[in-house]
Amino acid sequence: MSKSGILFIISGPSGAGKGTIRGKVMEKEIGLTFSVSATTRAPRPGEIDGLHYHFKTKEEFTKMIENNEFIEYVAKFQNYYGTPKAQVESLLKEGKDVLLEIETIGARNVRKMFPDAVMIFVTPSSFEELERRLLYRGTESEKVRNLRLKIAKKEYKSMKRYDYIAINDDLDQCVNLVCSIIRAERAKRFRNLDIVEHFNQI
Ligand code: 5GP
């Protein structure tokens, strides 16, 4: 049987730097495909449809839910976010590794379906630093920012379900750490039983 790809999940509160880390990890790691989520939220400056998200209207998103097109979806921050099913499943089946950047409830649901998924939680080393970064980013109104901080506190309660904690105080170090996690996971014996078997035969 050909081996299936590895599903990597990056989560972490708003402002943790997940998006930046994901982008840099994608540049550095070959053989990894980023799964572009669908969302009803409006694009931020510089965000490109189909690259950062598939931007959908509420009606389009609802239709996708009805057609069972998502592995998981959540209503969060007054918007919907969902992981499209078709691409992820076919990539994994082809043996290609896939990276999801999703929040903690979605991650939990994905893990139920893909127990071997590797879950990485990204965070700065303190809550004060997270607050500072969200303020500095300045992409949200004060109301939305406060909502995101409130939700962040809940997300930290899910940290215990993650396989790895990646502290993002220094961006380059954090990117290197996440790349190391990916490489180590690829080298795990249980993911390379074909090679073990090959050498058992000699
Ligand atoms: P943002 O609006 O800042 O791009 O994303 C808000 C949150 O939604 C982030 O924590 C992000 O990881 C998460 N998110 C993005 N896409 C998905 C998805 O497809 N499913 C789930 N569950 N969360 C997502």
Q: Spatial order of the strands in the main sheet?
A: 2-7-1-8-9
**Would you list the SSEs in sequence order as H and E?**
EHEEEHEEHEHEHHEHH
Specify the overall morphology: globular
List the total number of helices: 8
The mean pLDDT is: 94
| Biggest sheet descriptor | 5 strands, parallel
Number of strands: 9
The CATH superfamily of one domain is known as: P-loop containing nucleotide triphosphate hydrolases
Gyration radius from CA atoms, angstroms: 18 Å
Write up this protein:
It is a single chain. The protein has 202 residues and is an alpha/beta fold. It has 8 helices and 9 strands. It has a 5-stranded parallel sheet with strand order 2-7-1-8-9, with helices on both faces. It has a 4-stranded mixed sheet with strand order 4-3-6-5. Strand 5 (70-76) and strand 6 form a beta hairpin. Helix 1 crosses helix 7 (171-187). The structure holds guanosine-5'-monophosphate.
List the helices and strands and how they pair.
Elements: E1 7-11, H1 18-28, E2 32-34, E3 38-39, E4 54-55, H2 58-66, E5 70-76, E6 79-84, H3 85-93, E7 97-101, H4 104-113, E8 118-123, H5 127-137, H6 142-156, E9 164-167, H7 171-187, H8 193-200
Summed up, what is this model?
The protein has helices spanning 18-28, 58-66, 85-93, 104-113, 127-137, 142-156, 171-187, 193-200; strands at residues 7-11, 32-34, 38-39, 54-55, 70-76, 79-84, 97-101, 118-123, 164-167.
List keywords for this structure.
202 residues, alpha/beta, Rossmann fold, 4-stranded mixed sheet, 8 helices, globular, binds guanosine-5'-monophosphate
